[in-house]
Write a structure and sequence with these properties.
The chain is α+β, with helices and mostly antiparallel strands. It has two domains: about 45 residues; about 375 residues, DD-peptidase/beta-lactamase superfamily (Beta-lactamase, 3-Layer(aba) Sandwich), CATH 3.40.710. It has 14 helices and 14 strands. The chain is globular, with a radius of gyration of 27 Å.
Length: about 425
């Protein structure tokens, strides 16, 4: 009897094991099938190259001196001038310093990965780079008249009533004689019969608006220049500006945190520029007329992504094997075009040939270019010393005046310059 019970139990155990392993096998096969299906539906994730982080001393920057940036930025945060900031310093192709300060949104601590509305940094990062790529490819010339692409685009007349065509170069260097901006209210008054403002309407306005000549060949900074340039890039390439930039700049450089028109998930990681605007472009024309994608503003990014972009320019247009621009095109970005010396503008940038370009008192020279953004952002690239300084703040959400943010930028650059060792 006992023997029969033992045999029966053994059979039950073996059947249970068989069923169990069979079920596991079926599950494993189905799981493997799911994984194969996933592999077919989405490409395998590959570790992308990012900029290498190093100790500053190892690349000729004094770490002890660089740490002075910490106390400097913290003072501005403590008095409420800016809610927070991320500052990064590049030496060659390496990230020598990156630090986050203050808050980015509703009491949340600022981190290195917070996304910022770059405002006018969109102009050099997207548009100037894109235009130079098209020049290299034989699809544009800097001397071309804008009217070649926008047929009814008007020129301007000088004091002697002599007519001048506006060229791509004029737009790039802010010597087009176009006014600095146009308000939404002005556009509505100019087009009272239009149900809504549109990109086409804005381009039409810029094509015909009153020109405001500047004497002596000096520049007048104008968002309208880069709105037109962005439209020309779209016309020549047949791609929307955001799509062109993604394919030809951001993806090759693995700047995967840089984009126009943030979605909900991305916007949640953005620093707000006002109580109402977080992950939505601050500039009214870019936001209300251009649908978030414009040549003058609309780009969002991180300090690390901008560090990669700066390293590319310091590397003669190439980074990690990706050639974005040729060495001669990069040379052009650092050079004031012949005849435009009074403008102080290179192609898309300002030449930091004096102390009034937010590059401080020491990173000054013909090999330094700089651009700023109204939301409190700036990028300085000093090719002579192989240094770039990225400063990202959301100063419009704080109490910083234009003078405050200018002083902060300059002081940070002075500290970075002081850390330089030959």
């Amino acid at each position: 009897m006992k023997e029969n019970i033992r045999v029966g139990l053994s059979i039950v155990v073996w059947v249970a094991l068989f069923v169990g392993f069979g079920a596991l096998g079926i599950y494993g096969y189905m799981r493997a099938g799911d994984e194969r299906s996933d592999a077919i539906e989405s490409p395998e994730l590959v570790e992308v190259p990012r900029i290498e982080r190093v100790v500053a001393d190892s690349v000729g920057l004094d770490t002890r001196v660089l740490r002075r940036v910490d106390a400097l930025v913290e003072r501005y945060v403590e008095r409420g001038a800016i809610p927070g900031a991320v500052v990064a310093v590049v030496r060659g192709d390496k990230l020598a310093y990156i630090e986050a300060f203050g808050e980015h949104c509703r009491g949340e601590v600022m981190t290195e990965g917070v996304r910022f509305d770059l405002a006018s940094l969109t102009k050099p990062v997207v548009v100037a780079t894109s235009v130079m790529q098209l020049v290299e490819r034989g699809e544009l010339r800097l001397s071309e008249r804008v009217s070649r692409h926008i047929p009814d685009f008007e020129g301007w007349r000088d004091e002697e009533d002599k007519s001048h065509d506006i060229t791509i170069l004029d737009l790039m260097t802010h010597t087009s004689q176009l006014p600095p901006y146009v308000s939404l209210e002005r556009l509505r008054k100019e087009y009272p019969d239009s149900m809504e403002l549109s990109r086409e309407l804005l381009i039409d306005y810029i094509a015909h608006c009153d020109r405001e000549p500047v004497n002596g060949g000096a520049s007048r900074y104008s968002c309208l220049n880069y709105i037109v340039l962005g439209a020309i890039v779209e016309q020549v390439t047949g791609l929307c500006l955001d799509e062109y930039a993604a394919r030809n700049i951001f993806e090759p450089l693995t700047m995967h945190d840089t984009r126009y028109s943030p979605d909900v998930a991305y916007a949640a990681l953005c620093a707000p520029t006002t109580e109402e605007l977080c992950g939505v472009v601050h500039d009214p024309l870019a936001r209300e007329v251009m649908g978030g994608v414009s040549g003058n503003a609309g780009l969002f990014s991180t300090a690390e992504d901008l560090a990669i972009f700066a390293a590319m320019l310091l590397g003669d247009g190439t980074w990690q094997g990706a050639e974005i621009l040729s060495p001669l095109a990069v040379d052009a970005l650092f050079t004031i075009p012949a005849g435009n010396e009074a403008s102080e503008r290179t192609l898309g940038w300002r030449s930091a040939t004096d102390i009034f370009a937010a590059a401080g008192d020491l990173l000054v020279g013909s090999e330094t270019i700089v651009h700023t953004g109204a939301t409190g952002t700036s990028l300085v690239i000093d090719r002579e010393h192989d240094i770039a300084v990225i400063i990202l703040t959301n100063r419009t959400a704080g109490r910083a005046t234009a003078s405050d943010i200018f002083d902060l930028r300059s002081k940070i650059c002075n500290v970075v310059a002081a850390a330089y060792r030959r």
